[in-house]
Write a structure and sequence with these properties.
This is Glycosyl transferase family 25 domain-containing protein. By secondary structure, the protein is of the alpha+beta class. It has ten helices and 14 strands.
Length: 242
């Protein structure tokens, strides 16, 4: 009986410590930043200050294959969170931009209060493609959402995501030209099909228009990252099918 009591107490303590019931409960944020991008370091710290979360810098892994370095950096952040026993981790990239920080904080706070134990990963930004499942005024459940701009992972899901990242990295190392299939934010589609991945709405978080060290060019994804339905894109794709 005493043993059963200890087991139940342990399970209860784990579930309680893992709960995030509001934005003030987000205590572990890692932002990924290349050492030579001091401009982005200043930018991301200013952005995170807008939403009031404590943060630490992770020195990004720089490789000739930018997609591979990106995947490895995100993997290492997850491994750090696991090693330190964090109940959650908010991982973001240094080009994250909050277009309406007050609205975002309101929506995130409401989501966390209403969804304490029914999610695995919460995307704070994303380039989403239908289909998706409307849940409430704060979120949708996604099946095909990409970009690693920012996301929160719960402790119970670390191993699932770590395994997915590792496998994607293995494939990417074998076939580096197939980043469209094996890049981190493509390969995690497999997890989104059956696990609890949510995206905060309305979409007010984007990647800052800037030079990308991964793509080796200036990128502007603001339009597609604030378009949840991609109606025009879907219409164009439909026309090409006939």
């Amino acid at each position: 009986m005493f043993k059963n009591f200890l087991v139940k107490s342990y399970i209860m303590s784990v579930s309680v410590t893992e709960q995030i019931e509001g934005i003030t409960d987000i205590k572990h944020t890692l932002y990924i930043n290349l050492s030579n991008r001091v401009d982005r370091k200043q930018h991301v710290e200013n952005e995170l200050a807008k939403i009031g979360v404590p943060y630490e810098r992770f020195n990004a892994i720089k490789l000739p294959n930018g997609a591979l370095g990106c995947s490895m950096s995100h993997l290492k952040c997850l491994q750090i969170a696991k090693e330190k026993g964090w109940s959650h981790v908010f991982i973001c990239e240094d080009d994250i931009q909050f277009l309406d920080s007050e609205l975002f904080k309101k929506q995130l706070d409401t989501f966390l209060k209403n969804h304490t134990d029914d999610w695995d990963v919460l995307l704070v930004a994303g380039n989403n493609m239908p289909p998706y499942i409307p849940i409430d005024e704060t979120c949708v459940q996604v099946k095909q959402c990409q970009t690693t701009t920012g996301y929160i992972v719960k402790q119970h899901y670390y191993d699932s995501l770590i395994d997915n990242f590792k496998l994607g990295i293995q494939y990417l190392m074998r076939e580096p030209h197939k980043h469209v299939l094996y890049a981190i934010d493509k390969y995690w589609f497999f997890l989104q099909q059956h696990d609890r991945w949510f995206l905060i709405i309305p979409l007010t978080v984007v990647q800052r228009t800037d030079y990308s060290d991964i793509e080796k060019r200036i990128v502007n994804y603001k339009r597609i990252m604030t378009d949840l339905d991609k109606q025009q894109l879907m219409q164009r794709m439909g026309k090409h099918c006939f």
